[in-house]
Amino acid sequence: MTDPQTVIDNIVSGLKPLAIAVNRAWWDAAVSGDADAYSRLTDLRDALDRYWADDQRFNQLETLHAAPPDDRLLARSIELLYLKALPRRVEPELSRRINALSSDVERLFSTYQPLYQGEPRLFGYMEETLKRERDPAKLEEAYEATKAVGPALASQLHELVELRNEAARELGFPDFYHMRLKLEEQDPDDVARFLENVEADTAQPFADTKAEVDDRLSNRFRIKPTELMPWHYQDPFFQDPPDVFEADLDEVYESADLISVAERFFTGIGLPVSHVLARSSLHEAVGKDPHAFATDIDREGDVRILLNLRPNERWMGTTLHELGHAVYDDGIAPELPWELRQPAHTLTTEAIAMLFGRLSRSTEWLQEMALIDSDLAARLAGPAAKELRSAMLFSARWIQVMAHFERAMYAQPNQDLNALWWRLVERFQGLTPPPRPAGAADYGAKIHVVAAPVYYHNYLYGECFASQIDARLNTEVLSGEVTYVGNKDVGAWLTEHIFRPGAGSHYDELARAATGEAVGSKAFGEQFLVGRAA
C-alpha cells in the first residue's frame, strides 16, 4: 500500500478547496439570505459528499483506520478524516435530499421575520420587546410571534429528521442522534450520565432561584406565581434569567461601543482581534441570519464572526463569546496538518467562548474595563453576581430540555413533538405550558434543532470545562488578581494549553493536560452551586 502520509496528503489536497468553498458559501448565505447563495451552498455540499463517497478514497482511509501508524499526529488525522467520511457512505440521492432540505430550512429560518403589532420585525427587536414590555397582552403576542416560524417549517423539519435517521440506519446506527454522538467521539451512555448528574446537582439550586424569580415576577405583574406564563420570563426559551435582580446591566452597556470594548479587552490579554473584526458582519440586516456565530473559513487565518449587535448586556456577552471562538481558531498552531487545525472538539471551543461570555455580568470586569466606577461596582456587585449564578443555573436546565428533546425526537420522530417539548420544559424549567394553537411547533423555533442538530449538550460540557479552565487560571496565572483584564499571561496560557494543540488529541486528553482532569461538572458546581467567587 502507498505510504500512509502520502495517502492522507492526497485526500487533504482534494478536500481542502472543497471545504473552504463550502465555508465561504455558507458565510455568503448567512449574511445575505440570498436564494442563489443557498443554492450554491447546496451544490457545494453535494460536491463535498461526492468527494467523500469515492470508493477508492474511502477504502484507503478505512484500511489506515483499521491499523493506524505509530505516528501520533498522523494517526489522529486518519481518525478525524475517517469520522468525517463515514456519514457520507450513504446512497447519493439520500445525501442530495438531505443537503437540499437542510439548505431550504436554514434559509427559511434565517430570513423569517416575526409579525408583531401588524409589522414584520427583526429578531433583535422581538428580544428587546420581551425584555422591556410590561403589558401582558403585548408580551403574549410578542412571545407567540417568536414561535411562529415553527409551524412554517415543521413539515420540512420532520422530513429532514426522517432522512437523517435513514442515513444513520444505512450506516448501522439506531438513529441520527446516536450516529452524531459517535462521530463526535462521544459515547451516548456517557452523555446521558453527564446530563443526569448535572440535572441532580442543579435541581435544588434551580428550584430555589426560580422561586425567588417567580416571586419577583408575580409582584411585577400583580398575579399569583402559579399564574405566570412563559412570556412573563422575558426570554423566548427561558434560557436566560429575567431582569429582576436590579443589576441594570443593560443601562451600563447602552452607551458603550461594544466592539471597541471587546477589542480592547482581547488586545489587553494578548489575543488581538482587530483582523477578525475587519472581515466580520456585525450589524442587523433584513435577510441576514438573526443569531450569532464564529467561523474559520480556511484554517489559514480567515476567521470571522457574525453578530446582530444591539447595545445591551446580552450582546456584550455574545460579542465576547463569539470572539472567544475566534481567538481559539486564530491561536491553533499553523504548523499542524491542515486537518488538525481546528479545535479539539465542539465543547472545547464552546468552553473558551463561555469563559469570556460570562464576563459581561462581572462588576469586577466592568470596573477594570472602566465601564463603571468603584461606587457603582459596589452597588451592582451583589445583584450582578446573583444574575450570573442564575444565568448559569437557568442555562444548565434549558440545555437539558434541548438535549433530551433531540434524543427523543430522533428515537421516535412520529410522536407528538410539541407535547414532548412542553413536558420537558415543565420538567426541567418549571414553566407552565400555555394553551397551544393547532399546529404549534415551538421546538422548531430554536435554530439548533433545525440547523445544528445534536449540538446543544456541548454547551453544558462547555460551561463545565470553562469552569475547569477558570479554576486553573486562578491557580496558575492570576496570582490573586480578580480579573483577566490586561493580563497577557492569560492569553499566553490559553494559547499554549488549549489553542495551539488544535485537534491533535481527544478533548479529554487535552483537558487532563491543561487542567489535571477530564471534562466534568465538579468545577462548575464549585463555582456556581456552592459559592466559589464568580
Tell me about this structure.
With 534 residues, this protein is mostly helical. The protein folds into 2 domains: 1-89; 189-528, Neurolysin, domain 3 (Orthogonal Bundle), CATH 1.10.1370. The chain is built from 23 helices and 4 strands. Strand 1 (115-116) and strand 2 form a beta hairpin. The longest helix has 38 residues, at 374-411.
Q: Give the helices and strands as they follow along the chain.
A: HHHHHEEHHHHHHHHEEHHHHHHHHHH
CATH top level of the largest domain is: Mainly Alpha
- In DSSP terms (H or I, runs of 4 or more residues), the helix count works out at 23
Category from helices, strands and their pairing: mainly alpha
- Residue-averaged pLDDT: 95
As a percent range, the share of helical residues equals 55-70%
Rg result:
23 Å
Keywords, separated by commas or semicolons:
Neurolysin, domain 3, two-stranded antiparallel ribbon, two-stranded antiparallel sheet, mainly alpha, 534 residues
Quick structural gist:
With 534 residues, this protein is an all-alpha fold. Strand 3 (293-296) and strand 4 (303-306) form a beta hairpin.
